[in-house]
Each structure stands twice: as C-alpha cells, then as structure tokens.
Amino acid sequence: MKHLKEAIKEAIDDVGIKSALNQEAAIIHWGEAVGEAVSSVTEAERVESGTLTIKVKTAAWRQELQMQKEEIINKINKEIGTKVIREIRFIWVKM
Fold first, then answer.
1. Alpha carbon distance 42, 58 (integer Å)
2. How far, in Å, CA of 89 to CA of 92, rounded?
3. Model-level pTM?
4. Do 55 and 1 contact (CB within 8 A), yes or no?
5. pLDDT tens digit string along 50-92?
6. How far apart are CA 56 and CA 33, in angstroms?
7. How far is the first Cα of the chain from the last one, in angstroms, to the nearest whole number?
C-alpha cells in the first residue's frame, strides 16, 4: 500500500499541475529567497511561463534588483528545489 504522500505526488504528476504548483511556490517563497530588506520593498505578483513578475516600490530599488536578477533567479529556484523561474520582470508601482 502506498503512503498518502506518494499517492498525492503521483496524482499531481498525472494531472500535469506540478509546474503550476512550482510556479506558485516562487511567489510563496519570494521573501525567504531575497530576505527581509528586499521583501519589504517588493511584492511577488504572478508567474507566467517561467517569468516571475515583481512589484517594486521605487525606481532605485527596481534598478538595483535588475542588476541582481540572475543571482535572485538562482536563489528562488534553489528555494523551490527546481528551475521553474527563468526570468524576472521588475515593475515599478507605487505601493
């Protein structure tokens, strides 16, 4: 008899929602991946086709994060445990 955890994992794989769940995990784990300073001035908004969209409070922070984009992508993917995020789009929005 299978354990419940194994049965749920198989069901997720069979239905094909694993990628969607991994993308949602990027939003959930954004703060953990980037730390308190960055998470206090940003908000993870959505993931579409491997592109994570992040709202940023100021243009200065947007520029700083843009320069660190590759490092942040690596941190998020490491936090999730899979390479689901391929791009980050930082948008400056008054929050």
1. 9
2. 10
3. 0.79
4. no
5. 999 999 999 999 999 999 999 999 999 998 888 999 999 999 9
6. 16
7. 51
